[in-house]
Amino acid sequence: MASGGLQLLGFVMAFLGWIGIIISTAMPQWKMASYAGDNIVTAQALYEGLWMSCAMQSTGQIQCKVYDSLLKLESSLQATRALMVASILLGLVGIFVAVTGMKCMKCMEDDQVKKMRMAVFGGVIFIISGLAALVATSWYGNRVARAFYDPFTPVNTRFEFGSALFIGWAASSLAILGGSFLCCSCPRRETSYPPTRGYPKNASSTGKDYV
What we know:
The protein has 211 residues and is α+β, with helices and mostly antiparallel strands. The protein has helices spanning 2-26, 75-101, 112-149, 163-184; strands spanning 31-33, 45-48, 52-56, 62-66, 159-161. The mean pLDDT is 81.
């Protein structure tokens, strides 16, 4: 029962992490304009994401523009896109594999060993998915931080971390932790000892000894 509860907890955490990775990928707030220094504020907020850039005016009107050409984008942005999409696809595969190995499901009930292996394999896929998202968000955040502290970067073009990065970090951590719980939910096999053999009983004596 304890391993089943740990397995269910790990699956729920990994599934929530996968949902968070999707939300983070779709959000345009990967980085937002910094208004530190003598920067002239022409809009209330400027955001850039993996797929589009948005500007929210002081009137509350939001205007977004999707990136026109894929080939004109920076190679680092294309790599971040690829890692996030790969993380989402791996998470989807991990869901199907982990559900097959869940103890509460009736699939593969006749072979418990394979069922446990499927749950562990699903956990491994979730860990890889979380690591891919963690690498993508950390790499993107490192680029933002380096450009912010670069003295040659104009003040009016500096950006800070957006909310999508924090959601991505939290979601990838959930996916990795949930996948680890799925891997640890497989109970250890008990060592089997050979059955003890009983000693033969001595034949009952008749009470008379013959010489």
